[in-house]
Amino acid sequence: MDTYSDIELVGLSVDGDAEAFEYLVKRHYMTVYKVSYKWCGVREDAEDIAQEVFVKLARRLKTFGRKSSFRTWLYRITVNTAKDFSRKAATKRVYEAAFVSEQVLNNPSPLKDEHIEADRLYKSIDILPEKQKAAVLLVFGEGLSHREASQVLNCPEATVSWRIYQAKKRLKKSLEHEI
Amino acid sequence: MTEENDKLKRLLNTIHIPEPDEEAGKRALTAAMAEFQQLKEAEEKKVKGFSWIRRLTDKTLRGGPVMNRQLVITAGTVFSIILMVIVMMPDFMSYRKRSISLPPQETMQEADFKQAEPTPRLKKRSSSASPARHLFVASEQRLADKAERLDQTYVGRDRFETVTPNPVNRVAEEPVSTFSIDVDTASYAFVRRSLNNGTLPQKNAVRIEELINYFDYDYPLPDDRSIPFKPTVALFPTPWNPDTKLLHIGIKGFDIIARKRPRSNLVFLIDVSGSMKNRDKLPLLKNAFRMLVDTLDPGDSVAIIVYAGAAGTVLEPVKVKEKGKILAALDRLSAGGSTAGGEGIRQAYALAEANFDPHGVNRVILATDGDFNVGIRNPEELQGFVERKRETGIFLTVLGFGQGNYNDALMQKLAQNGNGVAAYIDTLNEARKVLVDEAHATLFTIARDVKIQIEFNPAKVAEYRLIGYETRRLRREDFNNDLVDAGDVGAGHSVTAIYEITPTGSTVRRLDDLRYGKAETTGPERVEESGEYAFLKIRYKLPEAKASRLLERAVGKESEYQSLDSAPGEARFASAVAAFGQLLRGDSYLKDFTYDDVITIAEPIRGKDRFGYRAEFLNLVRLAKTARAMGDN
Question: Considering only CB atoms, which chain A residues are within 8 Å of B27?
Fold first, then answer.
């Protein structure tokens, strides 16, 4: 199974191969979970989102267009599910406990500052408009190009760039304000 | 600019992401696989009917999409044991979601908080509180749902439907009494368990007809095999009331001779959720099924499906000649997880359908400690499902295990709707009774939808009340309506019903005459003066038939016994059990009758009592004398 590409596995799954589908889920669970976690900052919620993502994946296998890459497609489902989720549940990030591991907190080092800064950054991202948040997390969190992000978000590349620009302006402001 | 971008990237990936819970990962996988399989099934069903199971098996055996397909064909006849997670609770997700977005007051508070606190980043909530709250809300909601649907009583955590004893009826107003027979015995075993623990059972756990029918009675069999049973009638003085009489009606179905036994296609559906760990549950269940397998013929087939968090096939249908495989599969079962019983039932029926034997007995045997908390959780939906499957010729037997979480009401409903028997297994002895000694009765139905209707003669009988069968009463018009479902009689089963009647002219009638009611109406065919007490009608269907048949007989002087001692022993024993049940329930009709009186009547009539059931009954009565009521200290 390892040798199969995502697209091949999707093809087999569409033909009804349960094992191929299972493999696909296992291969991508952690990625989806991590993206979800970055989005919401709560482990339990991220688990729920990830679960929902894979149920949706099962449902939508057939609609997978070979035009986009599987990863892009999965990101899209994940982002949309996370959005839906955060609209429904009012859960907020749990900062200290989750973001800064105890070890880091107990050992004063430059790393600690980084963590505290990251923490603040996520807090600021949480209050960004949803679309900007999505763009920032995909581009900076996942390292996607603007072009890839535009495929995930289903909008022109220029729109992504514009959202990133807007987001950075706000983040800068709130980060400075924080300090 | 790039520096800024790099910093953002670095910071966003600096965070510590906790590992997801292992269970959550499994749950996600199961949920996704469930969705996948369900869609696939739906699609294949459209095309190919039931062949999906076989194809599924092939796929799994194949081990991978590109492995040698020929392997499957050679292995085709020898099904090996496969643990396969097939389908799981499609509404599990939505249930979780619901629980998360449920509490409106929380949202309200939060909204208020928001207004008071302009900087939302200060708003914190402990993470540990949130999942706990979800669970709490979810289970509360579940309980509320169930309470609403089934009107159950919660005493301890075992759930029983509330039972109100049948009222006394005045013959002049309501001369006809109709009910469905009940061959279940679950109530007796539950009562026994409570008494053995030194506690009186909950009143609602006592179903008198099930106590009575727990015992095998030696009623005469029909001479002619074309009729499955014949009614035995006796009328004798009521032990607990000198002014009334008991009308005792017994039927016994013929037993099936071993060589004429039809082939059995059995699917064991076994609950392996976490709560089944106790010694009196899964381990007892395994032993029980081992004994059952021993009684089967080599040509019979057995499949095993388990359910916990998910449902899965543990053993594809295997002929009993390969007993080793069945026993090995049983041995491997272990308990853990939640209970997706609904999904399990669905799969079990699918497997029974795939292996359907039109000339044999097709039956799903469900063994569980009660609650179905995942999957189809709505009892009505489950019932509806079981009911529809009954039409396909697959029946359901429900075996209850353990105490503490036992959902009797649901078990009863399922068995009743699935044309099946519900039994409660508390000891290995009981397992032997249900699955070995009475295996024929449990497995082979000789008459379906058996209904009893009695018309009392107002010239002889003033009042009557039916003892027990509260949950089995039918409307008068249901008797002749073949579409109305009723209880089934298995091979060798005996069924007993007892009425307490007050003869006309008695001074101790419980109901007054109506001032304006006409005492008598005259019709052309009145037989009041014939001396008949009542007219008994029994409707039943032969196992394969759609239309019902009718048995009739009058209850006249020839059935009457002037004293209790001269009445047939079997009838007297049944009346003692009826009295015991009413005492346990605290019914008001027994006057100063005591447990000692029950013993006095029952003791001399042990009958053959090959397995000591009647001796055990006497012990239970003695225990009841000293047992504490639930809640007493």
Answer: 47, 51
Determine, yes or no, domain membership for A21. Answer: yes
Give me the domain span that covers residue A12: 1-92
pLDDT of residue B151: 35
Closest-CA distance, A75 to chain B, in angstroms, reads 17
Cβ pair A91:B4 closer than 8 A: no
Q: What is the pLDDT of residue B311?
A: 67
A 72-91 → B contacts, CB under 8 A: 88-91
Are B131 and A44 an interchain contact pair (Cβ–Cβ within 8 Å)? yes
**Candidates B33, B64, B130; nearest CB to A91:** B130
Across the interface, do A44 and B96 touch by the CB < 8 Å criterion? Answer: no
Q: Which residues pair with B233 in a beta bridge?
A: B249
Which of the residue ranges B51-65, B265-279, B570-584 has the most confident prediction, judged by mean pLDDT?
Answer: B570-584
Contact A114 B40 (CB under 8 A): no
B117 and A CB contact within 8 Å: no
Phi and psi torsions of B398, nearest 5°: -115, 125
Query: Could you count the other beta carbons within 10 Å of the beta carbon of residue A113?
Result: 10
Query: Which run of H or E residues covers position B475?
Result: none
Question: Residue B57: its chain A contacts at CB < 8 A?
Answer: none
CA–CA gap between residue B602 and residue B614 (Å, rounded): 8
Question: Which two tokens mark B112?
Answer: 């208020």
Q: What is the pLDDT of residues B90-118, one digit of tens each?
A: 333 333 333 333 333 333 333 333 333 33
Give mean pLDDT, residues A7-32.
88
The DSSP string of B523-579 is -TT--GGGT--EEEEEEEE-TT-SS-EEEEEEE-GGGB-SSTTTS-HHHHHHHHHHH
Query: Hey, which residues 14-33 in chain B have their CB within 8 Å of chain A?
Result: 14-18, 20-21, 24-25, 27-29, 31-33
Query: Is A99's Cβ below 8 Å from some Cβ in B?
Result: yes
In a domain, A86, yes or no: yes
> Is the separation of the CB atoms in B60 and B82 below 8 Å?
yes
Separation CA B490–CA B185 (nearest Å): 13
Number of domains in chain A: 1
CATH number, domain of A78, equals 1.10.1740.10
Mean predicted lDDT score pLDDT of chain B:
74
Test B21 with A22 for CB contact under 8 angstroms: no
Residues of A in contact with B24 (CB under 8 A): 44, 47, 50-51
User: Could you tell me if residue A98 is inside a domain?
Assistant: no
Q: What angle do CA B38, B39, B41 make, to 5 degrees?
A: 65
User: What pTM does this model have?
Assistant: 0.51
Q: Do the Cβ atoms of B125 and A91 come within 8 Å?
A: yes
Tell me the torsion sign for CA atoms B573, B577, B582, B584. positive
Residue contact B93–A25, C-beta within 8 A: no
More confident residue, B279 or B83: B279
Model confidence over A125-144: pLDDT tens digits? 888 888 999 999 999 999 89
Task: For residues B413-428, give the mean pLDDT.
Answer: 77
* Structural domain includes residue A20: yes
What is the distance between the alpha carbons of residues B562 and B425, in angstroms, rounded to a whole number?
40
B380/B329: higher pLDDT: B329
pLDDT band at A57 (very low <50, low <70, confident <90, very high): very high
Which of A91-100, A152-161, B77-86, B214-223 is modeled with the greatest confidence? A152-161
pLDDT in tens, B222-232: 777 778 888 89
Structural domains of chain B, ranges and CATH numbers in brackets: 22-104+128-140 (no CATH), 161-256+446-506+530-626 (2.60.40.1230), 262-439 (3.40.50.410)
At B499, the pLDDT band (50, 70, 90 cuts) reads very high
